[in-house]
């Protein structure tokens, strides 16, 4: 949109007056932030309305992205950028004596996600809006997002994330669009007009109220919707039912138990034993989302048997996979469509993305729990399974193993991934290697059964947030050098590769990184009270804490360097600062010990002034979040992507670093492989076992971690330091880490890949010494990052899966 500076100033002052009866002098930054955000909302409100109207009138097919998680981060800066008014707004505010950055910093992150999967959903929303694709998010409005992480005495301490405390300016409550959700009760059958009807009775009914947030596309009039559902008591229940019986506290208890459904995001990003509340959350938002979609289409007089021409639903991992059965329920019980037709519509509508191969992460629900909470849905799943099993028996007569291996219901549990596969027309993995493993290993049976369902969609990231917003200085250089067409078409970043050996451009890219590093050092001094050398190599590993992501491997290399420096203080290495950041699931003890270990190593090294000579520093950044990611990623020289091959489905942090000109040190895992293909072997540092080697070791059980401990004195010393108090903590502090490596045989092959990793790190040190070569690598990484824009990914979903 176009708006001039003068109008912004006027509108902003008006807003401040209307909202708070305050002038610029008197208003707090929080109020200024709200006033500006309100203004941004107003500027986009016409387009939001028009987009909705257009979608309705043209009856264009709509995509609904169903996800338990949307890791949005902050919106003000992003919305200003996408509206194309960030610069003018910055100027206008400056003239009013206000610093836009300071206002942006007041906003709390919408941290409604754990990590990669939630952030991917947010990047996809941005891309769909920016490409003008009618695509909307459907999820839960958690009252508490992912916990805030504090580090106290080196330990992670979880604090509730009260992100709504000051109010959320971006959302609009739509109480008139609320729907009712039914839990528990029983199902009775009845013959009506010669057909069998299912009547759900004695259920508990709760209210789902939507809160809508505009998703503003970049440089377009499209404004899509993120609809998040809030669980509430149906008013009449609260007022009359319990209350009138004179039991006030029971009434309040009842209300609380219902509201608890949208109270908190589960802070686990892999597995957890089947928790009833989580199942309630899943059915709650899925049912609400589907009901509201169907209501819309019925109002538009679209024949229900043509639903699949008008909508597509993407299921983000198994979490919303109950959608398959819920849509069947609506079509059969409410719309009175035959089973066969309903199933055809359902599979045409649904598609499923798998984000993990770790088998313990594939969701399963115990039948007894599921049946009690969702009796009718369970019946439908049973029927889907019965028919599916018939098909298996037809295709593989007398193959009981096949039947058991593929059955949706097995051994007292419902396998949600299998339900999602059977009920969808598309199943995709999130990187080539990952899809390969799904097709040929983890879901091999299903791939053979459904020849064409499986496909790959390598993840992506929105270059608008992760380059334009996070790194305006680099953006400027790119625009000065290759024009600004790459912003609309990120593949054109490729043009920048022409300048890889241009000394002038190399210098500019180096200066930008240096500038970013210096401002991060200032931030670190201000916020954490720590000193960081901006001229050291910034080596960054930020991601969730997990054994398979191997933060331990990183720390082991650091300790190795440290011991080498102790022995030889004049050892010639480029000063390096190792950054870590990431949260551990509160119940994942090993991951929490690793955090304590990193902090223990940090304090040992950082306090050892004499031997280190400023060559080594370790920093754990607390509370890694989207907004912190935007600060640290543009400063990174080295991107750590060191998971055990085959374990990281894709990774998306790897793409963000690359786009900001970091060099990746990586295993051949997830999308690292595709990054390597894009930048070429010269511009990435690869180490460690590949997929075949890992799979072989796993298969023939031949790995013995103890052999490495005994044969490599470096490892012996490092591992001993876990239990010998040389790091100044008690000998039992890290006993779980110790035992995971030696007694439990090092499931993720940290010891096995250690030597190769140390050499790779040594190689990084050498490469960095050749300033020009290093910059060339950085430029190549930036220029090849366009294929990892989520715009590309979304175009493929749109064409291959959604048909929009
Ligand atoms: C499941 C059951 C119970 C409790 C929690 C969960 C749960 C919650 C979140 C399971 C998994 C998640 C999140 C997984 C995730 O973020 N996966 C990542 O997805 C990214 C986007 O595709 C990939 O890039 C990463 O490789 C993958 O780890």
From TrEMBL:
<comment type="function">
    <text>Phosphorylase is an important allosteric enzyme in carbohydrate metabolism. Enzymes from different sources differ in their regulatory mechanisms and in their natural substrates. However, all known phosphorylases share catalytic and structural properties.</text>
</comment>
<keyword id="KW-0021">Allosteric enzyme</keyword>
<protein>
    <recommendedName>
        <fullName>Alpha-1,4 glucan phosphorylase</fullName>
        <ecNumber>2.4.1.1</ecNumber>
    </recommendedName>
</protein>
<comment type="function">
    <text>Allosteric enzyme that catalyzes the rate-limiting step in glycogen catabolism, the phosphorolytic cleavage of glycogen to produce glucose-1-phosphate, and plays a central role in maintaining cellular and organismal glucose homeostasis.</text>
</comment>
<keyword id="KW-0808">Transferase</keyword>
<dbReference type="GO" id="GO:0005980">
    <property type="term" value="P:glycogen catabolic process"/>
</dbReference>
<dbReference type="Pfam" id="PF00343">
    <property type="entry name" value="Phosphorylase"/>
</dbReference>
<feature type="modified residue" description="N6-(pyridoxal phosphate)lysine">
    <location>
        <position position="656"/>
    </location>
</feature>
<dbReference type="GO" id="GO:0008184">
    <property type="term" value="F:glycogen phosphorylase activity"/>
</dbReference>
<dbReference type="InterPro" id="IPR035090">
    <property type="entry name" value="Pyridoxal_P_attach_site"/>
</dbReference>
<comment type="similarity">
    <text>Belongs to the glycogen phosphorylase family.</text>
</comment>
<keyword id="KW-0119">Carbohydrate metabolism</keyword>
<keyword id="KW-0963">Cytoplasm</keyword>
<dbReference type="GO" id="GO:0030170">
    <property type="term" value="F:pyridoxal phosphate binding"/>
</dbReference>
<keyword id="KW-0328">Glycosyltransferase</keyword>
<dbReference type="InterPro" id="IPR000811">
    <property type="entry name" value="Glyco_trans_35"/>
</dbReference>
<keyword id="KW-0663">Pyridoxal phosphate</keyword>
<dbReference type="InterPro" id="IPR011833">
    <property type="entry name" value="Glycg_phsphrylas"/>
</dbReference>
<dbReference type="GO" id="GO:0005737">
    <property type="term" value="C:cytoplasm"/>
</dbReference>
């Amino acid at each position: 949109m176009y708006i001039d500076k003068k109008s912004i100033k006027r509108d902003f002052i008006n807003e401040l007056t209307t909202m708070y009866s305050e002038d610029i002098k008197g208003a707090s930054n929080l109020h200024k932030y709200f006033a500006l955000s309100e203004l941004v909302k107003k500027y986009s409100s016409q387009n939001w309305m028009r987009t909705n109207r257009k979608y309705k009138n043209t009856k264009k097919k709509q995509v609904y992205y169903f996800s338990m998680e949307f890791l949005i981060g902050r919106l003000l800066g992003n919305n200003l950028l996408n509206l194309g008014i960030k610069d003018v707004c910055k100027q206008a505010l400056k003239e009013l004596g206000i610093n836009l950055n300071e206002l942006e910093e007041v906003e709390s992150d919408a941290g409604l996600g754990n990590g990669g999967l939630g952030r991917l959903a947010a990047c996809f929303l941005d891309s769909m809006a920016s490409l003008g694709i009618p695509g909307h998010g459907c999820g839960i409005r958690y009252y508490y997002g992912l916990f805030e992480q504090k580090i106290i005495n080196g330990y992670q301490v979880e604090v509730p994330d009260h992100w709504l405390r000051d109010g959320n300016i971006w959302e609009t409550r739509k109480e008139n669009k609320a729907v009712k959700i039914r839990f528990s009760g029983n199902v009775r059958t009845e013959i009506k007009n010669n057909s069998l009807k299912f009547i759900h009775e004695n259920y508990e009914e709760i209210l789902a109220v939507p809160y809508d947030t505009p998703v503003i596309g970049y440089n377009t009039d499209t404004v899509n919707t993120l609809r998040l559902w809030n669980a509430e008591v149906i008013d009449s229940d609260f007022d009359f039912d319990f209350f009138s019986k004179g039991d006030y506290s029971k009434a309040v208890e009842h209300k609380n138990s219902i509201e608890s459904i949208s109270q908190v995001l589960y802070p686990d990003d892999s597995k957890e034993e089947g928790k009833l509340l989580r199942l309630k959350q899943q059915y709650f938002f899925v049912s609400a989302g589907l009901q509201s979609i169907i209501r819309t289409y019925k109002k538009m007089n679209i024949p229900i048997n043509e639903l699949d021409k008008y909508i597509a639903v993407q299921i983000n991992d198994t979490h919303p996979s109950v959608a398959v059965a819920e849509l069947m329920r609506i079509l059969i019980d409410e719309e009175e469509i035959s089973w066969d037709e309903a199933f055809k519509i359902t599979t045409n509508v649904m598609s499923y993305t798998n984000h993990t191969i770790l088998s313990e992460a594939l969701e399963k629900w115990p039948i007894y729990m599921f049946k009690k909470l969702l009796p009718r849905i369970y019946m439908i799943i049973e029927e889907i399974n019965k028919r599916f099993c018939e098909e298996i028996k037809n295709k593989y007569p007398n193959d009981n193993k096949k039947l058991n291996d593929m059955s949706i219901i097995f051994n007292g549990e419902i396998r949600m991934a299998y339900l999602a596969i059977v009920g969808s027309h598309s199943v995709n993995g999130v990187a080539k290697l990952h899809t390969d493993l799904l097709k040929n290993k983890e879901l091999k049976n299903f791939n053979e059964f459904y020849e064409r369902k499986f496909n790959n969609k390598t993840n992506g990231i929105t270059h608008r947030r992760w380059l334009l917003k996070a790194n305006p200085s680099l953006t400027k250089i790119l625009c000065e050098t290759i024009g600004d067409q790459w912003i609309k078409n990120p593949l054109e970043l490729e043009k920048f590769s022409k300048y890889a050996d241009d000394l002038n451009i190399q210098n500019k890219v180096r200066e930008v990184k240096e500038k970013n590093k210096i401002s991060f050092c200032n931030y670190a001094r201000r916020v954490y009270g720590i000193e960081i050398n901006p001229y050291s190599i910034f080596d960054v590993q930020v991601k969730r804490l997990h054994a398979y992501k191997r933060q331990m491997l990183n720390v082991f290399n650091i300790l190795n360097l440290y011991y080498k420096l102790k022995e030889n203080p004049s050892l010639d290495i480029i000063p390096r600062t190792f950054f870590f950041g990431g949260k551990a699931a509160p119940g994942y003890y090993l991951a929490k010990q690793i955090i304590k270990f990193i902090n223990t190593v940090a304090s040992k090294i950082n306090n050892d002034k004499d031997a280190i000579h400023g060559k080594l520093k370790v920093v754990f950044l607390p509370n890694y979040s989207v907004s912190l990611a935007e600060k640290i990623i543009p400063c990174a020289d080295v991107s750590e992507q060191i998971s055990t091959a085959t374990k990281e489905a894709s990774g998306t942090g790897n793409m963000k670093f690359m786009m900001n000109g970091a060099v990746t040190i990586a295993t051949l895992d997830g999308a690292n492989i595709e990054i390597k293909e894009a930048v070429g072997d010269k511009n990435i540092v690869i180490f460690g076992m590949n997929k075949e080697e890992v799979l072989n070791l796993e298969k023939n059980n031949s790995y013995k971690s103890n052999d490495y401990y005994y044969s490599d004195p470096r490892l012996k010393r490092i591992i001993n330091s876990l239990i010998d108090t040389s790091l100044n903590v008690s000998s039992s502090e890290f006993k779980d880490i110790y035992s995971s490596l030696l007694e439990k045989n090092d499931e993720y092959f940290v010891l096995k890949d250690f030597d190769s990793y140390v050499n790779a790190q040594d190689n990084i040190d050498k490469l960095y010494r050749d300033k020009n070569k290093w910059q060339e690598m950085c430029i190549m990484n930036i220029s090849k990052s366009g294929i990892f824009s989520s715009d590309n990914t979304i175009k493929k979903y749109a064409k291959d899966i959604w048909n929009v």
